[in-house]
From TrEMBL, chain A:
Catalyzes the NADPH-dependent reduction of beta-ketoacyl-ACP substrates to beta-hydroxyacyl-ACP products, the first reductive step in the elongation cycle of fatty acid biosynthesis. Homotetramer. It comes from Sphingomonas abaci. This is 3-oxoacyl-[acyl-carrier-protein] reductase. It catalyses: a (3R)-hydroxyacyl-[ACP] + NADP(+) = a 3-oxoacyl-[ACP] + NADPH + H(+). It comes from the Bacteria.
Automatic annotation (TrEMBL), chain B:
Belongs to the acyl carrier protein (ACP) family. Signal peptide: none annotated. GO terms for cellular component: cytosol; membrane. Residues 2-77 form the Carrier domain. It comes from Sphingomonas abaci. GO terms for molecular function: acyl binding; acyl carrier activity; phosphopantetheine binding. 4'-phosphopantetheine is transferred from CoA to a specific serine of apo-ACP by AcpS. This modification is essential for activity because fatty acids are bound in thioester linkage to the sulfhydryl of the prosthetic group. The gene is acpP. Its main location: cytoplasm. Keywords: Cytoplasm, Fatty acid biosynthesis, Fatty acid metabolism, Lipid biosynthesis, Lipid metabolism, Phosphopantetheine, Phosphoprotein. This is Acyl carrier protein. The modification O-(pantetheine 4'-phosphoryl)serine is found at S37. It comes from the Bacteria.
Length: 245, 78
């Protein structure tokens, strides 16, 4: 089950913690990838570490023209596009009263608008092929909110609503549009937290531990698979039980 | 019948899965041929590909019948 052999995927933010786990997960199931990221050197190093016949497409997701060109580039290079994973995301945390316009704009542009542009572009080849899987990585924070993250929470909740609308538009063409919502995931950022803070974090998680990138990758692989064809407009929460929505 | 009309009708028959004799010049994609808004988007994409024309959104909105499509393509194809 969940064999992705013969399928192709574009993954944004692929050289990051969760993104690299997603890319590895999709590749392990047989998909051929175009990995994207903003840091070309880091991205190329990650692509090379994947082995196989994958390609790297560097892209600055805050640049609308670059974003619009990304899917056509991926289709030209891969020959088709079956799976789009909108994983890239940025944070610019600040209390709302102190939040600068740029902090708001940058987060909405990269996390929400770029995802919309990529799905809009991907819908064309997917409609023609009568097959497509779109998975956007949102966050538990999009449902629960989090102080200091009005911009980030809005962008992540926005992905959920947008995905539901697109799921309805595209369902008749065998294109599914879903989200995966990670909770607290082990990363370079959480590794750097003081022990006391880590303990306080895990206390809120019934599973008793932070999640891993592989936990997210497994959820993405499932939603990207042919077997998940009847699942659309959904958000799969992967958070060790810390929020049950 | 013009060559454009033939090719347009062939695309409509293929995309909408309707009987060829229903695809008259006067036929409305939505009212007569059972197309939905997504079908129209797909038809426009197929016309663009087949004839190498660009059909901008404001023009696409005005294409409601088979004849509308034929006329637009004949006026704009290179």
């Amino acid at each position: 089950m969940f064999d992705l052999t013969g399928m192709t995927a574009l993954v944004t933010g692929a050289s990051g913690g969760i993104g690299s786990a997603i890319a590895r997960g999709l590749a392990a199931q047989g998909a051929r990838l175009a990995v994207s990221g903003s840091n070309a050197d880091k991205l190329e190093a990650f692509r090379a570490s994947l082995g196989g016949d994958h390609l790297a497409l560097p892209c600055d997701l805050s640049d609308a023209a670059g974003v619009d060109a990304l899917v056509p580039q991926a289709v030209a290079a891969l020959g088709r596009l079956d799976i789009l994973v909108n994983n890239a995301g940025v944070t610019r945390d600040n209390l709302a009263m102190r939040m600068k316009d740029e902090e708001w704009d940058q987060v909405i542009r990269v996390n929400l608008e770029a995802a919309f542009r990529l799905i809009r572009a991907a819908a064309k080849p997917m409609m023609k092929a009568r097959f497509g899987r779109v998975v956007s990585i949102t966050s538990v924070v999009g449902q629960t909110g989090n102080p200091g993250q009005a911009n980030y929470a809005a962008s992540k909740a926005g992905l959920v609503g947008m995905s539901k609308a697109l799921a309805q538009e595209l369902a008749s063409r065998n294109i599914t549009v879903n989200c995966v919502a990670p909770g607290f995931i082990r990363s370079a950022m959480t590794d750097g937290l003081p022990e006391a803070q880590k303990a306080a974090l895990t206390q809120r998680i019934p599973a008793g531990d932070l999640g891993t990138g592989d936990d997210i990758a497994a959820a993405v692989v499932y939603l990207a698979s042919r077997e998940a064809g009847y699942v659309t407009g959904q958000t799969l929460h992967v958070n060790g039980g810390m929020a049950m929505i | 019948m013009s060559e454009t009309a033939d090719r347009v009708k062939k695309i409509v028959v293929e995309h909408l899965g309707v009987e060829a004799d229903k695809v008259t010049e006067q036929a409305s994609f939505i009212d007569d041929l059972g197309a939905d808004s997504l079908d129209i988007v797909e038809l426009v994409m197929a016309f663009e590909e087949e004839f190498g024309v660009e059909i901008p959104d404001d023009a696409a909105e005005k294409i409601t019948t088979v004849q509308d499509a034929i006329t637009y393509i004949d006026e704009h194809k290179s």
